[in-house]
Fold these 2 entries.
Entry 1:
Amino acid sequence: MSARAVDPATDPIRPVPAEQVRIDFEGIELVGVRGQSIAGVLLANGIESWRTTAGGLHHGLFCGIGVCFECVLVVNGRRDVRVCQHRAADGDRVERQDDPAGPRGGG
């Protein structure tokens, strides 16, 4: 028995071809799939950390559900965007948000 019961070419949940979105992450163009979160686009493109704490630790995605605030970035000029919850839109401009105090002042 196959691990995949539905032929990928006819899978109604994953229409082929998927519509692409392009975002700019600090001057690097990244390609994702329509409906994907910005965090998903970053991870799919091999970017696993995008924030530095006051102690110099590199952080990226942690909880993935918007509770921990580890994934915050600047999106289209707006700070503190939880990119695990924010869907990528074609043309989004995304920048690091290295805030030593953290988005809630906690670090």
Note: Residues 38-44 form the longest helix (7 residues).
Entry 2:
Amino acid sequence: MISRRLIIFTRFPEPYKAKTRLIPALGAEGAARLHRELTCHTLACVRELARNFPVATAVRFEGGTSERMAAIFGNSFPYRRQGEGDLGRRLDRAFAEAFSGGAQRVIIVGIDCPEMTPQLVREAFDSLAEHDIVLRPAADGGYYSIGLRFQVSQLFTEISWGTEAVLTETLREARQLSLKVYQLKTLSDVDRPEDLAIWYRVRASSQTNATPPISVIVPTLNESADLPIYWQA
């Protein structure tokens, strides 16, 4: 059994429900498309991590169905609804089920920080060897990743979710519980129109570093005028 669990929190990319704060800049369809792109980017990061780092991964989502999620994002991961309640209750539930299933280190990440890399996720897991809670703060005052090595439900109560006080209040609760806390590098998330430049920069960098297409010519007898070209990314 793999002792490390990585859980991705996202939602089905439905117009008017995904990335709603970006609708004024992108429109409802564009905001949903961006949410889909960010989710794909995060899942690609996780697939790369899993190539040489044993970790069990699952996707917890809102909206849609497991079948519709798999149709868009593939069948590499199990999909499960986040369930009812505010973000705190949903986070607590995901941690509880992971630990009850035998996990010893559990990390939950959102899809809003495109600067996340496999190395950063691995760093978070490694940090849990000596700390009870590992946080990756977001520049907006929240956090986009939280890791635990045992269940701590109190961390998710009395928190002003969706505000700039999320990280501060979480750290306050951790201190009151005498938890060993480690904060990793702060990154920016993509929630507002002014954040779009972050995603455009990361996306451009990913495309630049991608393996260039290779053209393969398959010769056929006396068919020089119709030689097909096959492209492999």
Note: The chain has a mean pLDDT of 89.
